[in-house]
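Holo model, adenosine-5'-triphosphate. Inputs:
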Amino acid sequence: MSSLSISTELPLKKETTEQVNKTVVYDTKNLNLWYGNNHALKNINLPMYKNEVTAIIGPSGCGKSTYIKTLNRMVELVQNVRISGEILYREKNIFDKEFRVEELRTRVGMVFQKPNPFPKTIFDNIAYGPRIHGIKDKKILKEIVEKSLRGAAIWEEVKDRLHENAYGLSGGQQQRLCIARCLAVEPDVILMDEPTSALDPKSTLKVEELIQELKENYSIIIVTHNMQQAARISDKTAFFLNGEVIEYDDTDIIFSTPSDKRTEDYITGRFG
Ligand SMILES: Nc1ncnc2c1ncn2[C@@H]1O[C@H](COP(=O)(O)OP(=O)(O)OP(=O)(O)O)[C@@H](O)[C@H]1O
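Output:
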């Protein structure tokens, strides 16, 4: 699988406290999005950095899912969507005519709220993406399956049942399987839309630990309703309200000394 060889050092528009010369993976500039007449995203400007976890928080309906689905252009599957502004992924505007959406789909993986394994064996769930990319060699596929399952911290639990249906796994195991399925195509970025909201506390903890490990090799953007989770696992946090980014900063600043009263009210549970 190819990896991009583009220079990724961008000058930063907005520097958070310690953010100097970090690699920008995604840079969103003046992004607006409408569903029909509903102005769902308003002038969003946000950088996202390599090997960091960026959390998107905010009350229901503020545009978190819309934003994350815009990053991989999935939102365009919805009818009557109109977008203005730019999202640069590795310095290329993903809305440019010449930009290849397939590149995004291979470089940017997504994990959804509800685990969504295919109705196939555990092995075939993981081998699915590599096979689509033309990998046929059984030995290589086996290696990818093991590496991906290990990467998602689920290998020990499933290594003796690789040829059983993935639906037989628990919810928490299915979610880690879905993360492994992402890893199998060697993504650059992993988008996660409320990945633990359907999981019990023990599975949630496992997925959170996994996210911490994965950021060594990937850049992760996570939408979460759970503020403790954002505080525990993210490096940067963006607080959305009514389609706007109210505040974006290092996570410890957002949760200790936010500069906007609305952020403070939200994180202290006054609304949302
Ligand atoms: N497919 C759609 N068609 C039309 N409007 C939509 C669609 N999806 C979302 N919206 C609207 O866009 C706005 C933002 O919704 P979005 O789902 O992005 O919010 P959210 O912050 O992710 O909410 P939640 O936390 O409840 O999932 C809302 O007003 C919502 O009604």
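The pocket of adenosine-5'-triphosphate is lined by residues 35, 38, 40, 58, 60-66, 78 (CB under 6 Å). The chain has a mean pLDDT of 91.
Archived with the compound record.
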